[in-house]
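All the exercises in this workshop are built on plain-text protein records. There is nothing in a record beyond a sequence line and a structure line. A learned vocabulary of local backbone shapes supplies the integers on the structure line. The question running through the whole workshop is how a given chain folds. Here is such a record, shown just as it appears in the course material:

***
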Amino acid sequence: MSTVVGIVSKNPFARIDAPQDFSLVLGGPLYQLFRRWHLSDDVLDHVRRRLGVITLLAWLPLIILSALAGTAVRGSVAVPFLYDIEAQVRFLVVLPILIAAELVVHQRMRFVVRQFLERHLIPENALPRFHAVIESAFRLRNSVIAEVLLIAFVYIVGVLLFWRHYVALSAATWYGTPSADGLQFSSTGFWFAYVSLPIYQFLLVRWYFRIFIWIRFLWQVSRIELSLIPTHPDRVGGLGFLGNTVYAFVPLLIAHGAILAGLIANRIFYLGASLPQFLIEIAVVVGFLLCIVLGPLLVFAPQLAQLKRTANHEYGALAERYVREFDAKWVRGGAPVDEQFLGSADIQSLADLSNSFEVVSSIRLAPISKEAVLQLLVVTLLPLVPLVLTMMSLEEVLEKLLGILF
């Protein structure tokens, strides 16, 4: 197993190998299987191969089997396969996004560990503990037992319980027909329920597992007494780089928005529902997604709160002493006769001190910005925008937009 712990040198911050060694996605039995089948490598290349193989395995048999059964386009069912918006979105949009997101997350988060070290946020005496945290994250990421449990969870909870009772349409579809004994699968439905759907659900829950590893990593790092700087211009003691990691999860937010849009679309077109009926569900899903992406950064709040309290006290005392001396010297006539006020370095020092005190006073409790929250909210809701057309025509939408703009 690869390790990030190198040979101890005179420079304690030179104990990490290449930054790409830290990754949430370069590990696990499936990843090793992909490498053996030449569907991936050490830098997650061959994305198109993985997209093609996995998508075709999940989607192609469904179109073939439904065509043979006469339920692909028309037939005796209310929802033919090609008219099932939820299924098409799930396998032709969401599934590829979940696969491609691995490369995005890997590339955007590979420098996280190096940033902690290069910014000297980890004290020298805490370096062994920091490396132990990284190794622990790697062991969990590479766990065979974890992926086996995920597969079991998908079949027992995801397919047999959750999907069958809460997601499947209560209408005759290409995959099955409701009955008094429950959903009766068609021949196509068996492949869908036991091959295609588990592939999709496994990739989805594996992302939840990776996010759990990320949360656990951040929480364990937050237990270390970090060397934070109160006057750092990012106003979070030097942890501002963590705020950019949330953008790595944008593809996952888009995927979840698409999942929700597909599910709602089916119920609008085939069960007579309307978009406003799902406002609570939309709010819950969006809130959940923002929490799991932004929430982990709150683990540093206790240290940042303590940093702000201490800095306000220390820099407040320093400012008090300086301004009193400045007042006594330049306002009360204490300056030497031959020292000119114009061009004095004391003025610049007073301005610098004022700027430092302002930074200290505005320290935030987490490396989260309002812009990030708004941008993540927009990308999550974006796939749902076309559903507005189920409530009004495109012309009405354009008229309202033009009315707002002009």
Observations:
- Residues 266 and 401 are 27 Å apart (CA to CA).
- Confidence is low (pLDDT under 50) at residues 1-20.
